[in-house]
């Protein structure tokens, strides 16, 4: 757990975006029998729980197979399979089939299918498969039901052939893309083959086509998303990519420490001339100066590169090397390389034992490593060196805040303010912790004091705006965000875009102005593409607006950016769900169009006050927020004379599955028994 001045507030922005949008979404929640959709797609709620894959809730009564033992999960006792060659008549030849009239061919196909159904019920899967194959061969025109029933044979055989199950479902779906049973059967086979993303695609299509009326289908989607999320989460955490956070986050980290003078550099050796030289200096002293210059200019990537180079070259004195290690340790910590940061800061302390800042920084590293007691011990050692250093009390307060010890945190912030009254973050955090303690009036008073003391700093206005937002004091919140935005735009880059995100969220909550909220989020992303709060906002709002392609990109981006496990899990769930739903929109555009026409919020009237994103921040050009023309889903027409009466289907691979008589078109999702 790091103790940067604004990390806790930044997380609350992301959480607030997700929680509020989730509470007010106009979307289908997978796992609920909802009747409204966003952009014609399903919206996976982070609060949905993964269902038990073995749930039998809502299942219709099936014909019973013979079972051994007493338990319901006892193995099926298979009857001896009959050889297809034992059929009373051989398969018709090509010439014999060609000699039949279309009506005769259809009648023969119906006979084969009826016999196949009987064989299937008797668990004679090889025999049933042969009969369905004959039905396919003789039928005057292809019938999706024959391929789907053949797939059911391969799925339910004692030695299932999942590849053939998928292949035959593919053929059925070419003939009838709305064939729910074939989709469900293919999804189960794909899952058995380990093709989980494709399985999720089919489960999602089933759920939407059934209008969310089947709880089991919804739980299949939840379960598949959970499996994919767990797998991707593990992969991401095992890779442990070391990546620098956004500039605003780095700003916050270094801003949490008071400015201090650079260590005195040794005088150049007589006769040395490093200026204008094309060669590297003999030591890293000059390179360290360049690294510190880059740090002052907030050119963080260059500063990190230069300090690495300086340490490779070597510094000519211990204090200089300690300074370089302190700086590199800071960048390693920000890049999530806690072990590297710990090693650098430990060596820096050995070289410069009286460095308070190195001890304060290593305390944060210990907290991140889950070694809080060592973190507090490092701060105690720093106090022995300088008991009047305000940084020590401020960071002790941050650690107390993270550990949810607000009273002790408040005391530390007050001590930091007494020692360093010109440090803005101590005053902000004192107001924040007072609010956390439920002392709303005191918190407001402290924020107003911080604003009076730092009228040209955006942070007091922004975080006071967050308090007002939480109190649903919309006009006052927006007013403070506007001042913060103005101050940020007037200062030197990089701009802190959180006030833009917060203003958008306030307008969304206050006036349900989703389009202005989107524009503000896009403006924030144009300035800082790595801002997690802005990414999370656009991901959620794009989903609300039916711009699922944009939302999918943003959820994957959030998964790449976040360092918080809970946020990573949430982003991955939404990302996988959005990807699956994009495929649904591609495969079933008429259904998506129907939902879009009902649910997409209308574009606002011309508003000169609303911020307009520039060309680089425009939303996905393939998406549209305008209501689309309603198109009713294609309903199943009259079947050929081969159609009969069959039972409901289950997922592929279940031994209780009943063969079908025809594809079913929602609603209702299944044909009656």
Strands, count: 2
Output the CATH topology of the domain at 84-239.
Answer: Serine Threonine Protein Phosphatase 5, Tetratricopeptide repeat
Structural class: mainly alpha
Q: Assign a percent range to the helix content.
A: 55-70%
Percentage of residues in strands: under 5%
Q: What gyration radius follows from the Cα positions, in whole Å? A: 33 Å
What does the main sheet amount to? 2 strands, parallel
CATH homologous superfamily name of the domain at 84-239?
A: Tetratricopeptide repeat domain
Biased composition (Low complexity): 615-634
Membrane topology: Single-pass membrane protein
Organism: Rickenella mellea
Biased composition (Basic residues): 57-69
Task: Write structural notes for this entry.
Keywords: Membrane, Mitochondrion, Mitochondrion outer membrane, Repeat, TPR repeat, Transmembrane, Transmembrane helix. Pfam families: TPR_16, TPR_8. This is TPR-like protein. With 673 residues, the protein is mainly α. Among the domains are: 84-239, Serine Threonine Protein Phosphatase 5, Tetratricopeptide repeat; 246-261 and 282-387, Serine Threonine Protein Phosphatase 5, Tetratricopeptide repeat; 455-529, Tetratricopeptide repeat domain (Serine Threonine Protein Phosphatase 5, Tetratricopeptide repeat, Alpha Horseshoe), CATH 1.25.40.10. It contains 28 helices and 2 strands. It has helices at residues 7-24, 94-98, 102-121, 125-138, 144-156, 162-175, 180-192, 196-209, 215-239, 247-255, 285-296, 300-313, 318-334, 338-351, 356-368, 372-385, 390-402, 406-419, 424-436, 440-453, 458-470, 474-490, 498-511, 514-527, 532-544, 548-561, 565-587, 589-599; strands at residues 28-29, 42-43. A two-stranded parallel ribbon has the order 1-2. Helix 1 (7-24) runs parallel beside helix 25. The longest helix has 25 residues, at 215-239. Mean pLDDT is 80; it is low at 5-11, 20-79, 276-281, 606-659 and 661-673.
């Amino acid at each position: 757990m790091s103790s940067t001045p604004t990390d806790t507030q930044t997380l609350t922005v992301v959480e607030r975006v997700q929680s509020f949008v989730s509470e007010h979404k106009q979307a289908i929640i997978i796992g609920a029998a909802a009747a409204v959709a966003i952009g014609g797609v399903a919206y996976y709620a982070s609060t949905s729980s993964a269902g038990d894959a073995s749930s039998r809730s809502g299942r219709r009564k099936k014909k019973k197979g013979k079972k051994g033992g007493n338990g319901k999960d006892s193995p099926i006792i298979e009857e001896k399979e009959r050889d297809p060659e034992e059929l009373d008549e051989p398969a018709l030849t090509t010439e014999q089939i060609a000699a039949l009239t279309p009506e005769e061919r259809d009648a023969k196909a119906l006979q084969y299918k009826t016999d196949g159904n009987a064989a299937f019920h008797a668990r004679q899967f090889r025999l049933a498969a042969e009969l369905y194959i004959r039905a396919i061969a003789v039928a005057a025109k292809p019938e999706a039901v024959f391929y789907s029933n053949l797939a059911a044979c391969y799925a339910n055989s004692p030695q299932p052939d999942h590849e053939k199950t998928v292949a035959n479902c593919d053929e059925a779906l070419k003939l009838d893309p709305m064939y729910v049973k074939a989709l469900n059967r293919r999804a189960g086979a794909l899952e058995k083959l380990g093709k989980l993303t494709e399985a999720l695609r089919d489960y999602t299509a089933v759920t939407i086509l059934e209008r969310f009326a089947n709880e089991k289908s919804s739980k299949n989607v939840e379960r598949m998303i959970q499996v994919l999320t767990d797998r991707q989460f593990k992969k991401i955490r095992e890779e442990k990519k070391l990546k620098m956070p956004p500039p605003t986050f780095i700003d916050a980290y270094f801003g949490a420490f008071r400015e201090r003078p650079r260590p005195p550099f040794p005088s150049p050796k007589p006769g040395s001339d490093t200026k204008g030289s094309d060669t590297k200096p003999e030591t890293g002293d000059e390179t360290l100066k360049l690294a510190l210059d880059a740090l002052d200019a907030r050119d963080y990537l260059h500063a990190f590169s230069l300090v690495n180079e300086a340490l490779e070259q070597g510094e000519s004195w211990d204090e200089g090397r300690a300074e370089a290690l302190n700086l590199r340790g800071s960048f390693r910590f920000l890049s999530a390389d806690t072990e590297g940061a710990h090693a650098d800061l430990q060596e820096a302390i050995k070289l410069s034992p009286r460095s308070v800042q190195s001890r304060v920084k290593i305390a944060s590293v210990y907290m991140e490593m889950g070694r809080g007691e060592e973190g507090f011990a490092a701060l105690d050692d720093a106090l022995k060196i300088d008991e009047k250093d305000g940084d020590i009390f401020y960071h002790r307060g941050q650690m107390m805040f993270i550990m949810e010890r607000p009273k002790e945190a408040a005391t530390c912030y007050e001590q930091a303010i007494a020692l360093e009254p010109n440090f803005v973050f101590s005053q902000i955090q004192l107001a924040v912790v007072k609010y956390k303690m439920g002392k709303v009036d005191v918190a407001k008073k402290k924020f107003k004091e911080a604003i009076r003391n730092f009228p040209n700093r955006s942070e007091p206005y922004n975080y006071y705006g967050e308090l007002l937002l939480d109190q649903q004091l919309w006009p006052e919140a927006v007013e403070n965000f506007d001042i913060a935005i103005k101050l940020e735009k007037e200062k030197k880059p990089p701009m802190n875009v959180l006030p833009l995100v917060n203003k958008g969220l306030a307008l969304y909550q206050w006036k349900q102005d989703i389009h202005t909220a989107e524009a503000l989020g896009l403006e924030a992303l144009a300035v800082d593409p790595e801002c997690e709060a802005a990414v999370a906002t656009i991901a959620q709002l794009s989903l609300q607006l039916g711009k699922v392609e944009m939302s999918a990109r943003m959820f994957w981006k959030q998964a790449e950016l976040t360092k918080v496990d809970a946020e990573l899990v949430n982003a991955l769930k939404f990302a996988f769900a959005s990807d699956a739903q994009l495929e649904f929109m591609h495969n079933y555009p008429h259904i998506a169009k129907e939902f879009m026409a009902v649910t997409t919020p209308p574009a606002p009237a011309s508003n000169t006050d609303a911020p307009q994103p520039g060309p680089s921040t425009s939303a996905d050009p393939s998406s549209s927020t305008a209501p689309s023309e309603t198109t009713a889903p294609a309903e199943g027409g009259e079947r050929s004379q081969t159609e009969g009466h069959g039972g409901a289907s289950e997922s592929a691979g279940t031994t209780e599955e009943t063969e079908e008589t025809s594809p079913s078109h929602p609603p209702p999702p299944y044909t009656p028994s």
